[in-house]
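Section handout 9: paired folding examples.
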Amino acid sequence: MRIRATTCLSLVLLLAACSTGGRLASVDENQVYAPTLDPRGESVDGLVVGHRLMAAGQYELALEAFTRAAGEHGLTPEVITSLGTANLALGRLNQSERLLRRAVEEEPTWAEAWNNLGVVLMERGQTAEASEVFRRAYALDNGESDAIRDNLRLALAKMENSDYGAGQEQEYALVRLGSGSYLIRRAF
């Protein structure tokens, strides 16, 4: 009789160890493992994710998110501008310039894309073209953006003072504003 009770108890404990929890399992708020995927859940838009990653300084991950957004939305001017901005943040100026030029060709009235193209041109040392691009961005924006105005002022000042030395060129830094607009500021 004692062997039956021990066998029965062992069998119950063994089966209890195999349980997945079911309805009786308690949900621990401090669990260490990731929650399971809800196949009926909605995914977050790749552009939103990319902009959040840009704000967090995760430019490579943002580039991947914008690439996924291109698969979802197609290569819209917003997606192309976002890809160009992520490449700008990563220092890939040639790729950034190519993408931003394509964006302004497809959407010539978008001031943010023109501004970011101007920042790329300033970074590449093409000050004259950058000032023209900033003028266009400022006109499209109706003068409402302080960042575009400041970028235009800096480009014009740099054109007027053509005897910049190597030390003076390094006094400027890019500052990211909003979801993808950049401002050129003097570094301290």
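Moving on to protein 2 of 2.
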Amino acid sequence: MIDFRYHIVSLISVFLALAVGIALGAGPLKETIGDTLTGQVAQLRTEKDALRGELDTANGSLKDAQAFLSAASPQLVGGTLPGRRVAVVLLGKNDQSIVDAITSQLKAAGASVSAQVQVTDTWTSSAKPTFRQTLAAQLTPYLDPAPAQNATVDTQLAEALAQSLTGANPSSPNTLSESAGTVLQTLVKAELITTTADVTAPADAIVVVAGPIATNGAPAATPDPTTVTSAEMEIARSAQARSEGAVIVGGSVKQGLVTDILADNTVSSRLTTVSDGHEVVGQISVPLALNARIGGVNGHYGTGTDLTPIPTTVKLEPVGRTPTPAGSTGSTASSSGATG
């Protein structure tokens, strides 16, 4: 009986409290509570409108800055790559408009695009390791210098790609060497790469545009990102080793090749990167960075931490393309020089 009465008293107390709250809310405190809530809502609405205005202003300023940079780019990059032939190598999925913008800046700098090559998924497909190993063995005799005997398949194929784009005919430096042409055709027929047009002239320099790693496709044939970036790293190394200079360009995705290069002190000391290839400022930086790299200056450019905003250019000497008579010795590579 005592427990029952205790519960009754407790329930009465709860309902009494509810009744008092309702009475106050509908009576003396009604206006106060309503006014308070109305004021808070109005304040939040005002703050939201202010933030929207600030965002619109910032976006407008950004568009104005990009428009200014686009208009000024011919003056910024003009003459920085005089007479250079540049091969553009595309890795992963890239927005064609970004690729077109980068090639436009290269041309504005005085360069010509000797090749545009897309590396396909077959390059790293987990379903075709034996195929790639056999192909690499077939290509090695055409490579000079040849990869080390203990070189991985990734290294062998990367060397093949770089040399196929830069190998010049000693007696006719404006044409590909016979070996380079053979290697390039073999890579195309094997569907490891595609080209937008016939490649007839050797490149002096290489720009590697590293897009996001594709995650779709058949699970059995899709390698993990580590495998992809490892293969791409070898392409970047060979691009630098077999040319006057190379630049590795990243986009909006903060992972992949450029991120891996920046994370490795040894690799980053040898390879030049541009981290904002999807922005106008990054696209302008590509020819400027390539100019600096050809001139012997390695750097990492972009808007992130520890990155240099804009490359400092040097004056490059014209490219030397003197034919080498058959049987003579000496370097067959294009000669260049830079003055500060």
